[in-house]
Amino acid sequence: MPLIRSMRNIGHRSVDTIWRIGFAARFFVLILLNSGMSFRRFHLTVRELFFTGVMSLIIILVAGLFVGVVLGLQGYETLKSYGSESALGTLVALSLVRELGPVLAALLFASRAGSAMTAEIGLMKATEQIAAMEMMAVNPIARVVAPRFWAGVISMPLLAAMFSAVGVFGGYLVGVVFIGVDEGSFWSQMQSSVDFQHDIMNGVLKSFVFGVAVTVISLFEGFDAPPTAEGVSGATTRTVVQSSVVVLLLDVVLTAIMFRGI
Amino acid sequence: MERTALDLWVGAFVLAGLAALAILAFKVGNLSSYNVSESYQLKANFTNIGGLKPTAGVRSAGVLIGRVTDIKLDANRYEAEVTMSIDKRYQFPKDTLISILTSGLLGEQYIGLKPGADDEMLKDKDMIKQSRSAMVLEDLIGQFVAGKAESAK
After folding, report:
1. B52 and B90: one domain?
2. Interface confidence: ipTM more than 0.85
3. Which residues of A touch B55 (CB under 8 A)?
């Protein structure tokens, strides 16, 4: 019966998905429990901070500048028709600090650093380095996974802040320097409408949550990848796709909680 | 890569990130205008606050002297009760007039304080008696239309 077979298929997939989510949650708890070493031997985390944070800098800065410039151009075009060009600073800063900074930085981070993490751990598993560590009584989660997790969690808010700051500079560049919006009202309107706690700290909190989500997904996919060339490539693809979807989904939830328009 | 070079790069990265956060806080956000100096609370009732929001500015003669901290509905009188925190350096007489003003025709709403001539000053948690509500554009238009109809008769 094709109907029963397709039903069985759906059931199998649902059970499989839930099983994987549960497995990822246990993996997350395991990372937290085994993260003592990443702080006691902090140079392990520093090394990973270099690969996840410093190496992502260029793409984050360039993308942030471009996004800010585009926001400045588009915002000016729209605001001009209402005669309120002076609100350009507010528009650029609020959209970057609240949404675009954390979200775009997390998407770039997932494709730049997350995929690298998955591929690295997947390949370590395929070449049996992880199994070798276990043989030598070295806990691979404490030695390999946890430092990468903390490096990702630390660098994500910093990268998002840099993205927003560079973006605001891009908006300033195009709005004030090239188009000629009044510089005083650009900054003063921005400052009077961007609240430190409500806007900036909520943005930082968002990027922190995204950092946790992206790194856990990348590390889990790498650790869970079938130890073949095909398996590692599939896991890398899944990392980018799942991280992007999860980041956007979490963004909807967090925005709904944080900015209810009180 | 050598460990010292690695440390250097990561240190520069973390510092740059914190610097970006500081720029956001002080240049983009309003942390620099957060008052670290002491403040006191004042309250006032309005029949209509229009679009006033918490964190809106409180100004006297155009100078920012405080912020709206809380807005709620007084359930006994069905009026809005607005709480403000004002910089302690500025004291106001008891008969100060408080009104809700708009910057520009459709701009942000803020609170304006117009000092009276009383000798006694307002103290912490005092209520300002004389208040003037927000200008609601729809009401104005309604009055104008009604006045037109009246005079046409």
Report:
1. yes
2. no
3. 195, 198
